[in-house]
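Retro notes - structure team

What went well: the batch runner handled both jobs without manual restarts.
What didn't: labels got mixed up in the shared folder, which is why I'm recording both outputs here explicitly, each with its sequence directly above its tokens.

Job 1
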Amino acid sequence: MKTSTGLKWGLIFGVLFAVSSTALYYTLFIYPQLPQLQQYYYHEILNSTNGNVTEAMKYSQELPIFLPFSLLYLDLISLVSGGLLAGYLIAKLWNKSPHWYMKGLMGGIASLIVVTFLLGFIVASVGGTIIYTTSCVLMGLAVSYRLNKLENKSVKKD
């Protein structure tokens, strides 16, 4: 299996899983707590600006706007990096293991290690652990499954 093919599918599935896991994590765990987060953020800014109420109000009102995009940015960096590593590892291990799902699990675990290093504060929560562990393992399996389908297609052509 060519490494470039593994990297390409790792990138594609990395972006796909980053967007979907961000949407799921934000919807289930961040959005319900947004009023409390805004209040906490308001008090933190109020304390750091020595009682400037207008600044604190302005920044706390912007929280629902920049928080989802900040999470998406961090997820894109970490899950795309993890997807690239998973695709590279799966392509390198292609001839060493006979089963596509074993290669996918190895790629998913490697992706989870990268995501844990880059998003440790999110993965440390219970919801983050569930969502990002599942995303990484499914991403590794998806890359491996797709590479297996491409390999089977090229074998049938020959």
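Job 2
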Amino acid sequence: MGTAAWVEVYHTVEYGQGWFSPVDPRADDIRKEEKLHDIVRESRGLTLNKLHRKEDGMSGLVVAGYRGELDIRHLDAACREKTYHVVTYGVNRQWLDLNHILRDLLNGDLEALRSALVLADTSGHSKQCKENLTTPLRDVVNSEINTALVDAVLDSQPLDELHTLVSADYAEKLKNALLSALKRIYDGVAMRTWWQAPLTCGLLGLAAWGLKHPYWAVLPGICTLPMSLGILRFQSVRVFTSALGDRPKAKKAVEHVRKAKHHRKGLWLHLLPSLAVLALAATGAAHQYTLDRNAPTAPIFAIPLAGDAPSREAASPGNAQDYLSRARSLWEKSTREPAPASENDRLAATDWALKAVNASPEDNDALLLAGQLTTMEGQSPVAVTKGVTMLKKAASKGSGEAMHILGLMYIMGSQIPKDAGQARHWFTEAANTGRASDMYNLGLMDWRGEGMSAPDKDRARQWWNKAAARGDSRAKQALAQGGPGGH
């Protein structure tokens, strides 16, 4: 039988590192920056240099010494007119000073943007101000280190876990500078574009007035605000795309600004002139409606038909009265028919009326009917000129109806240029024949000051008294209300 002993073995591992001569002056900086095992991994040619044991009773120390080479290189790098001394080391070329350089560059871009914001606060919303902001903003956004921060700001996400290479203070400064720059650029775009849609729609409204379609002028007024805000959004996206590098990010920036209080200034810049254009268009249309409602309204084409309507048989060749009766019959029929039959009968009535004039050039009734039909809306300028000539000839022969029609055409600018002087002349001629409706029309012109330096309401009331004495209901109403339509 032998003997046995129980032996307990305890061990601990300790590591140490030292440099052999010659030592690079930055070697200690590497040791401070990296852990021992990381330095070993970057070394090459690592070999066992020494192994021995030191005894001390039951305990002992085993020393294993390894030797390796760590390649350290120095270079000078220039970036943005500044020179940096950079140290790289190890087989994987680790950078000793890269983080310091990055911080300098990032802070430099951020400070350039913040300085541009200070300058923008004192230089207004000029185009140069926008360029001064766009360039430093682009430098900040284009940094790959800032990408996650910029996306988080545009998405309204917290920045707590995103500043891995930069400090929390830097992340907060970047957020504030980015939002301030976007606001300034957005306001600048709003200042430069607020007039575009109101001017365009205003010109379209004036064109509608010039073409004698005042009610259509309301449509450009309604479109002004949507068009103005659309221009603001389009131009903002375009500018932000240039600054932020891509369109999706620019759209996020526009939406972020529009949701914030920053949007209010740009919105009001576009809202007020757009509402002004709409108000002017609506006021003009309302004024035109009032004029139309109170305009001389004796029917132009309410022609009393003489006798019974003739049969559908053809008129006798060369018989002016047969031609005239045929024209009246077709015209009366066209007023009761829907299109296109009514248009065909109206054209046929015009042909028969002209035949009546050709058969009897001095027939007043034929001249009146042909003149009315050839000056209707849709007739050619040549036909209208011929029709006005026939109406004037009928008026010269004492036709009060022809005088009345000429007065209406000149005061309303219907088919011929508006001429208040000519309108007053023909209304006066018609009133002198005893027509109460034209006495009312003369009073209406005096009340409004048509063709006069100023309205003459006293003379207007004199005309209305004369018309009311002859039974004109509109004149009686104007006298009772103190003016046409209560005005």
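One thing worth noting from job 2: Strands lie at 44-56, 59-69, 72-79, 82-89, 94-95.
We'll revisit the folder naming next retro.
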